[in-house]
Amino acid sequence: MNAIAVNNIFKTYGTKKEIITALNDISFDVKQGELFGIIGPDGAGKTSLFRILTTLLLAESGTATVDEYDIVKDYKQIRNRVGYMPGKFSLYQDLSVEENLEFFATIFGTSIEENYDLIKEIYVQIEPFKKRRAGKLSGGMKQKLALCCALIHKPSVLFLDEPTTGVDAVSRKEFWDMLKNLKKQGITILVSTPYMDEAALCDRVALIQSGKIMSIDTPENIVAAFKGQLWAVRSADMYRLLKDLKNYSNTKSCNSFGEFHHLLLKNNDTSEKEILDYLHEHQHKDVELKKTQPNIEDCFMQLMSNN
Amino acid sequence: MEKEIVIQAEELTKKFGDFIAVNKISFKVEKGEIFGFLGANGAGKTTAMRMLCGLSIPSSGKANVAGFDVYKQTEHIKQNIGYMSQKFSLYEDLTVKENIRFYAGIYGMSKVAIKEKMATLLQQLKMTDEENSLVGSLPLGWKQKLAFSVAILHEPKIVFLDEPTGGVDPVTRREFWNLIYDAAEKGITVFVTTHYMDEAEYCGRVSIMVDGVIEALDTPANLKKTFNASSMDDVFLQLARGAKRSAD
Amino acid sequence: MKQFIIFVKKEFYHIFRDRKSLLIIFLMPIVQIILFGFALTNEIKNSNIAVLDNSKDEATTAIIQRLNASRYFNVFENLKTQADIESAFKSGNVRMVVVFPPNFRQSLLHSNKAQIQLLADASDPNTATTITQYASSIIGDYQQGLNGQLKIPYQIQPEIRMLYNPQLKGTYNFVPGVMAMILILIAAMMTSVAIVREKEINTMEVILVSPLKPLLFIVSKAIPYIFLSLVNVITILIVSVAILDVPINGSLFLLMAESLLFIITAVSLGLMISNFTKTQQEAQMFSLMSLLLPTLLLGGFMFPIESMPLPLQIVSNIVPSKWFFLIVKDVMIKGLGFSQVWKETLVLVGMSLFLLAISFKKFKIRLS
Questions:
Q1: Residue C259: CB partners within 8 Å, gap ≥ 6?
Q2: Total-model pTM
């Protein structure tokens, strides 16, 4: 059974003068117990998608089910059984950690004690601050608290909309570790993020840009589907290197990737020597050139250029 | 050849009551440098930047920005720097043209200069057709690029960028950094904070703040050697993990 | 200087592109000027009075005609007996009763003087004072007309009695008015703000995606403000009685029950407003403009409603405070019972049910 099934969802906003298509024919499935990532930048449509699946918005057309319940007709059942963490912080800033948790537990007809095991690993990290007002917590702790509140009623499906945005790098890592542990409990998790590197931590991902899904697969398969041979290249003057490589007639695309530039050539049989010659012609020093495997961001950018 | 120093901080400190947000930081930034100013949330980055921008008076220590003192000459500082952040860039209910004219006017640019620069700017960003569109209707990536260009329109000596590429798609992010490189080539010093560790690699030098103190300051290559790390991400995590402070 | 100009220019852009602020800047002053200028006046016009004519002679008829003809008065009822006077006032239909004793004209002719009783409902002391003055001056004119060249002038003495509020204390009018105003503010505005706040801080999303039923949500939002408003009512009453010397002539229980009813009406107004406002600021502004202003201007305690042009009188009927104000005055000042205020009570009940039904129906179970 598919925990989430989405079929041809369209969502538009705006007035008659200007219609903005937020979601353009979105279809995908999420299996039970899967950790599924929706990867895309701001404006891709992630939040609209999450709101539609949690029954907060109606799509213009298309259908979807969560735990086999229809998002339109059976919205009450869905609201009773899913956990939801919206993009912006959405707990009560003037209530304490404990008070927030108790409130949400009670709303869902349970208590903190009943499902304590489920949230224990996460909660112990914020328990020392349980009397502190939620508004006075750091970004990382707020996310942990919001996750606990979404989990407290043992949902069958967990919807996390950009849970790591705006949170520091250490907390981000910790958060994903927590998600992996939750998976072990059999909870289906749909999570969205603009950080491409987090895609590798999911079972499967859907890459989304401007309301369209560009690819759905395991991270490994997406990387394997990358077209062409990718080269990593660096030199003493990275900015000039970038410009020269972009001007190289054989270049299909060249993008900076931190330490190295990732270079994709039109002719995939080009030898290392050929490239090195071009670089020496342009007086680049300390050149380092090697073949490399693409990462999700490379794939995302290639798919963007294809569309 | 000795390069001009455009930012100089010596034991710069900011206290809020008993809480020491920024604890005696010292560093220098050269003209035309792309200086990465990194740190976890709550490390004191924002507070430090506000002092350098002339928005907050330090509790102690010294600093000079664009040759002006951060205690007594904050108005001069503001006139000579540009600023852009992820949270606020331009007015959503004004058009592209109106935004440009407004900010240029604030910095005292003449009408002739504005007209010229606006045309060049829009051409460079390939946004000439959008000059009468409301900024609110533009996609995020365009907004951010436009905001950066507006921030340097009056050719300031230094431009401060506070997480300018948050949430933006990977292609636009790189286009943004191309704009940063262009600005640096023209001699504008870029002082940028970011959460993307690959962007740390694009900087000439990087400083990492932890608990109000600068724990590391060097080129990315040297930092990786010092910390025996394979990437800036690794360097950062090693330093940030040791942080005691995690308050926002 | 250039900086200044460009900044001002920018501000104008912001204002003109925000439809809501334009409404406030241009529409509101116009509405207020029209309301104040044309409609609201302390001048008394068309006040309903009743007449108990025990003489029914040429003189009394003449005077009654003059009263009726003046723009100040409208003879609403011709009473038959003394007993009718009390019910005339209780019904709230008339502000003044003019009583002519028997043999009015004969008294004038034989003893050169006669008396007229002017009984005024002084629960609104300002109006009562004005009305009796107008009446006295009309009677005085008639007297003048009669006298003409006579050597011994006629004297018609109006005996003025202020009912319910013999000392003409302004607080008698003022306290019920303040009650209405405060309850509208607290119960309506605060409830609407409390609901809209959840939308603003985003917790509404999480609450919606939960088993919590909308009805429960609405009720839980309203209960604290209903309770606090009741506390406010008690406080106002204590202060009014203890410090301002305002009496509670009627049943305290009835007064509290009616207050509770009005609080519920106000809360349902707040609920309705929360359904279509998105920010707390909007909710506040809207509450102030659509609730507080009509309450003040059309509620009947600052400006008498019968002096307003007909369209405004009709509009004032949909202002809940107008009905509450009448009820409180009747119960508190006039000491009347439920049998006299059941009609107004019914109006409030009807309004509450209607508003609650709409608010509940219009409650958004989704974001959009």
A1: C179, C183, C230, C233, C328
A2: 0.86
